[in-house]
Amino acid sequence: MNLSCTTRRRLHRSGRIAAGGLILMPLISVSIGLLIYFKRVGEGGPDGEGKSYIETVVDARKSAQEMTSEIELLNFHKELRMHAISNNDKYPSLEKLLDYSSIAQKLLYARGGEQPLCIYIEGQSESSDSWNVLAYEANVSEGEVGMVLLKSGLVQTMTADQIAEALQQTKDNLAGK
Fold first, then answer.
1. Helix (H, G, I), strand (E, B), or coil: what is residue 43?
2. 0.70 exceeded by the pTM?
3. Taking Cα atoms as reference points, which of 114, 171, 115, 105 lies closest to residue 146?
């Protein structure tokens, strides 16, 4: 069988189109299926349960804010320790802290009648109980959790009731009970 050159070109082109269509159709089907799947995952998972994309982003942002608060409290503890080393193991008063510490200014200074982010417990030294509260988040409501900086340098997350209990224990320790 002897085919002319133009006939061969036509067969070759039609074969390429047919082969291309065979490859593209499954790819398009899989792509559409993946788009539908990921849309459903974004709406709460493949079975409609779970978190939406927005809820996940909000949770991630909240976690980042908590981590930032923890890092700031740890840096605040380092500044307190540095002050204690050069001042007979005594932690500074709130006024001294606000004079020299930019972290303290950010955490403890109340702007325009607002409540500060954290409350600092004065009157402590390096020899104070390591479980004493040095600073804690100011705006923790019932049922919420907040960050607490202990004298040992630990930053813990506590409920409002646990914070109140830890503060009472710190006050008792400072009073010598």
1. coil
2. no
3. 115
Take residue 137 and report the two structure tokens written for it: 């988040």
Tokens of 110: 């109340």
Residue 173 near residue 132 (C-beta atoms within 8 A): yes
The label of the residue with tokens 């200074």 reads 109
Domains of the chain, residue spans: 1-50, 59-175
Percent residues over pLDDT 90 in the chain: 19
The 8-class DSSP code of residue 134 comes to E
Which residues touch 126 (CB under 8 Å, ≥6 apart)? 81, 84, 89, 90, 91
3-state secondary structure 54-93: HHHHHHHHHHHHHHHHHHHHHHHHHHHHHHHHCCCCECCC
